[in-house]
Design a protein that fits this description.
Layout lengths: L1 E9 L6 H21 L4 E7 L5 H12 L3 E4 L9 H11 L3 E5 L6 H9 L3 E5 L17 E2 L3
């Protein structure tokens, strides 16, 4: 079994759910192909900034729907800022970062991840204008306060 930790961050309140789900589906498919070459399977842990953000909520829902793990670093745990970003990288230990454009406060996360040698994907949300209802929100594990 191959285990990967994926930090999903950024975006804005208008980030379409389809953009988040498509990015996670694409990454999961790529990792499944790589795992198949090794005659293995892949399990993802989705790390996000909380279900109060649309990106976090959609990522959490994707994890539950795909029987993957989820960890939440909510703003209740620690306010936004450089120290919080450092803690998310240090405690979350992501292997990959999916960073959606639209939230300048996540620039610290991207820079810290790049400096740590973590694979970072900057994602735009253009072209994701599905008119379907957003997926249902789900519970996830919470980082202790």
């Amino acid at each position: 079994m191959i285990f990967k930790r994926v930090l999903v961050c950024g975006g804005s309140r208008t980030t379409p759910w389809a953009a988040v789900l498509d990015a996670l589906d694409t990454l999961a498919a790529k990792l499944r192909q790589e795992a198949a070459l090794l005659d293995s399977e892949v399990h993802l842990t989705i790390i996000h900034e909380g279900r109060t953000s649309s990106v976090g909520s959609y990522a959490d829902g994707w994890a539950v729907s795909n029987k993957m793990s989820s960890e939440e670093f909510s703003f209740e745990w620690m306010p936004a800022g450089l120290e919080r970003s450092e803690n998310i990288i240090e405690l979350g230990r992501p292997d990959v970062v999916l960073a959606f454009v639209g939230n300048p406060s996540n620039l610290d996360l991207v820079i810290l991840a790049q400096r740590a040698g973590i694979e970072v994907h900057l994602l735009a949300t253009a072209g994701h204008d599905r008119q379907q209802a957003a997926p249902e929100q789900h519970n996830s594990s919470r980082i202790p306060t």
